[in-house]
Amino acid sequence: MVKKFEFINREISWLSFNDRVLQEAADERNPLVERMKFLGIFSNNRDEFFRVRVATVKRIVTLGIRGLDPQYEDPIKLLNQIQKITLKQQERFHKIYSELLGKLEEKNIFLINESEVEPEHVDFINSYFETKVYPALVPIMLDNVKEFPYLKDKEIYFAVELINNSKKRNKYAIIEIPTGTVGRFLVLPPIGDKKYIMIIDDVIRFCLKEVFKIFDCDDIKAYTIKVTRDAELDLDNDVSKSFLEQMKKSLKKRKLGEPVRFVYDSELPEEFLKYFMDKLGMDEDDNLIPGKRYHNFKDFIKFPNVGGKELQYQKIVQLPVKQLEDEKSVFTAIKKKDVLIHYPYQTFNYFIDLLREAAIDPKVKSIKITIYRLASESKVVNALINAAKNGKKVTVVIELQARFDEENNIYWSNQLQEEGVTVLHGLAGLKIHSKICIISRKENNKLVNYCSIGTGNYNESTANLYSDFSLFTANTKITIEVSKVFKIIEGKITPYYFKHLVLSPNNLRNKLVRLINTEKRNALAGKPAYIYLKLNSLVDNDLITKLYQASKASVKIKLNIRGISSIIAGVEGLSENIEAISILDKFLEHSRIYVFCNNDNPKYYISSADWMVRNLDRRIEVTCPIYDKDIQQEIQDFLDIQFKDNVKARSLDKRLSNKYRDLPNDKPIRAQFALYDYYKSKLN
Question: Is the pTM of this model over 0.85?
């Protein structure tokens, strides 16, 4: 039995993952504006971490739950550890930020504050403030209100102090900074070769006296503060309410969630800080994060590039898939041979093309699809609505509990229903996280099914940033079982035995255990044995235990885990046959791939499921075998290229050091760049 200390706590591992994001901001090999954006990604990640993960640990503390999970045996100690790591990362964050400002200045780009405004910019700033910013400001005088104003999650505020030297008591106010209305950055007119950017906070600071001109004060100070709230949804069991109604009610509750973190300008006067802590019901044991004058660095994801193209990643020219280009009809191409598309190296438009063709093809009778996250301006939805208008029977299973996309998915549910699309919201107690689509077409008086099965969402926006696989197939072994998945979701059949697809929560866990055990037996018998896994997260203790057992039996295990990982690799007597890496780079690594040696007759799978309890036991996930030999080779080539990365791959070790791998290669191999060249070469 593997002991508890042989797992890395998932929260601590997550902080280590976000530290890798911070490494990207520090990496001089990345373009300068992209490094600023990585600061934004780091900040956005950390916000979600506190809203969800830290909030969960705090609930465990409040409820006094101990011993249910060894990772939470001492949740108070864990919270203290999180706070310590967070403060250390915060310090490093600001050091990197300061360095990047210096690098920008070397490029004649200046991020200026209210005290650094050039005379040439005064009129421009005042005019912008008067016309755009001032109308969006709602100052609240704290002396005048009976109840402390509600501070929204994800927003930033000014805690304003109006100082009057002749009076003993100063006035205090709160102002929400309206970044949703005016954005976070103001690009100022250049002066000669110099370019200037101003954060909207400082635009407001520059004009604060105008905001409070009715008050007699000698000075005005503004300190940025921010509250992070518990974002977990509480869904009641009132059967008289529709699930849609419950979701809307829970989303309103989320906005009133308990504070789990208070971030403030470290210059905030002690008296003012205590005032906010008292009003928010927080104390010194809570996550109080002293910072600099700016918060919500997530906005830096949209940091403006006022310099040259060299300051950003250049957009790749997405490559064609020869098999699809050679045929007029996508259906004809798929029927001839399975097709694997790898986003973003190859374009997501092929899936849009498939839906558009299905919408107008008189032979197509129906389309069914599962949706988890959609683009804000969704071409997928447009194509599905077009199909419904063309008389096709369209069924969309849309997951209302896709975290932080709930409101967007409620909106699209309503839009689809208004256009005559059948919209389902899945099964009680199970999120539907699978990425599957089936199109039924009548050919020679019988229905022929065409399927798309993927590792990522049907979202054309993220498909330009996330690395994902999508299989197009007409193989009846697969298509018949995809049809069964939809029938289960529709409640038309009970859980079904699948011979080819592997379905969560039905049998994925058991299937993985059997596959690992087979490798273990083969290794003990002296046969070839290996396991290659590419995942976003690996935190299921039972499956990690099985991997440890396989390692002890000499199974060679290679892991490529982008995010959190509770496994400890490379420990003698436990996991010396396990190598674990993580790649962070230009694109977000999102695909899930499982490969098992099977005595040199390898089994290849692509999946929507990470190895987490929620994916294995509480979601409908689809894991699909790859039978086409050419595609198997393509996936193997992909894995080999990634494991050769010696530029952006970090080793995952017990110390969570995130050291870049030092491989004895003749030349640098940056996997994502090498993969683009690989797909380009396949066109020749």
Answer: yes
